[in-house]
């Protein structure tokens, strides 16, 4: 509950003390203590007109906070809601639309377009980018998702991400409402309508709307949603990570990209609370797993790039591309990377990993972030390592290049 102190400008009718506290209980209303009354709060920009029109017959309380004022409309006091429940209106459809629009405008979210199979269309007004409450993805977590980057007007690695979405859907017993090609076409069109040249395309396959039971048998058809939004500014600074104390997902759930990301969200919050970039999961045998939304890799003192096997973690598309870039360099298909001598994918004990010369986090939105400290252990010399920086540059170059088979040109002109 949020308390605001007030000073009274005019309280003749109420006989309120000179200083009281109001608790703001719900948007637009505050409760006057020692009374059972809720009073409407208004912003200071509305004060002038309000004062001119209504002040003579009303009592006004001015908040010490510069931006808020509370008015007591004395003549209508009897009609004022007296409980929180009474202050909650029952809305008409028009009112819902108007409130959604108001909320959408106020939030100013950088969401450019949304596809919804429920509406069978693409929405560009952020106010209406919504999912039904009875969708089993919402109330049972019965959904899977994936993400692809939009870079320089192209979708990067769309097919790899779409394949993983369909693998996850099959594990989650979700029968997609469209063929792979149709899903792909929807994603490309949503990206085009969004007009975003850089951003993220996120998409979900869900058991679908149908009711509030546990079994998805009540859902007539699975649903598909996709959203294009702007990229968040990521820091390019090297980071520190911690060992996560949040229990790790079992392999079945870790290898599926389902919407059950509570462990991941908690692992990230725990890290953020300690000023770290991510929490790293280490399994019961002491082997390194992954971060909450990234894979991890290490470079040993002898120049070996090490990555954990994917049997117990999510098979990251970015990590796989990074491995193939590193292998190409070793095999002479790309210029060599100084200090890189070998590539291995194998179980890595956390003890061994902490002694590595270099450590990096890898994922779609990053794509590579150097790690210089894990718990209290400095990694290498405490600076981003040369192999990490070389791989980061090569991967960024690969993402930006727009002519490879990993890039799908977005046909903005077709949907302009
Ligand atoms: C748990 C987890 N591991 C790894 C990754 C990295 O995968 P990708 O490189 O495909 O983005 C992600 C991405 O979201 C993730 O959620």
From TrEMBL:
The keyword Signal applies. Keywords: Pyridoxal phosphate, Signal. SUPFAM superfamilies: D-aminoacid aminotransferase-like PLP-dependent enzymes. GO terms for biological process: amino acid biosynthetic process; carboxylic acid biosynthetic process. It holds the Pfam family Aminotran_4. Coiled coil: none annotated. Its cofactor is pyridoxal 5'-phosphate. One of its GO terms (molecular function) is catalytic activity. Residues 1-21 form the signal peptide. Belongs to the class-IV pyridoxal-phosphate-dependent aminotransferase family. PANTHER family: AMINO-ACID AMINOTRANSFERASE, D-AMINO-ACID TRANSAMINASE, CHLOROPLASTIC. This is Uncharacterized protein. It comes from Ceratopteris richardii (Triangle waterfern).
């Amino acid at each position: 509950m949020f308390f605001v102190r007030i000073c009274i400008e005019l309280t003749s009718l109420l006989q309120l003390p000179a200083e009281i506290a109001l608790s703001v209980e719900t948007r637009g209303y505050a409760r006057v203590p020692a009374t059972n009354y809720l009073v409407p709060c208004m912003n200071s920009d509305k004060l002038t007109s309000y004062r001119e029109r209504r002040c003579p017959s009303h009592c006004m309380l001015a908040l010490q906070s510069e931006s808020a004022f509370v008015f007591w409309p004395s003549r209508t006091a009897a009609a004022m809601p007296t409980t929180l429940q009474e202050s909650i209106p029952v809305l008409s459809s028009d009112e819902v639309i108007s409130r959604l629009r108001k909320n959408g405008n106020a939030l100013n979210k950088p969401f450019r377009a949304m596809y919804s199979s429920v509406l069978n269309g693409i929405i560009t007004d952020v106010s209406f980018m919504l999912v039904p409450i009875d969708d089993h993805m919402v109330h049972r977590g019965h959904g899977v998702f994936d993400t692809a980057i939009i870079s320089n007007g192209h979708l990067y690695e769309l097919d790899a991400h779409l394949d993983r979405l369909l693998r996850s859907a099959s594990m989650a017993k979700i029968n997609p409402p469209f063929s792979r090609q149709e899903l792909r076409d929807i994603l490309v069109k949503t990206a085009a309508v969004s007009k975003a040249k850089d951003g993220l395309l996120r998409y979900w396959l869900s058991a679908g709307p149908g009711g509030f039971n546990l079994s998805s048998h009540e859902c007539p058809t699975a649903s598909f949603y996709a959203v294009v939004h702007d990229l968040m500014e990521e820091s390019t600074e090297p980071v520190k990570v911690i060992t996560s104390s949040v229990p790790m997902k079992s392999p079945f759930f870790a290898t599926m990209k389902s919407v059950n990301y509570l462990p991941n969200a908690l692992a990230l919050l725990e890290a953020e609370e300690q000023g770290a970039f991510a929490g790293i999961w280490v399994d019961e045998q002491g082997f390194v797993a992954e971060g909450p939304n990234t894979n991890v890799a290490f470079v040993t003192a002898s120049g070996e790039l090490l990555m954990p096997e994917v049997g117990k973690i999510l098979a990251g598309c970015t990590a796989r591309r990074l491995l193939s870039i590193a292998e190409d360099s070793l095999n002479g298909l790309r210029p060599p990377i100084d200090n890189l001598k070998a590539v291995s994918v194998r179980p890595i004990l956390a003890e061994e990993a902490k002694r590595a010369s270099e450590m990096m986090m890898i994922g779609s939105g990053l794509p590579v972030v150097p790690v210089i400290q894990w718990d209290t252990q400095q990694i290498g010399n405490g600076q981003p390592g040369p192999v990490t920086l070389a791989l980061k540059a090569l991967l960024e170059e690969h993402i930006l290049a727009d002519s490879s088979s990993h890039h799908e040109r977005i046909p903005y002109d077709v949907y302009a």
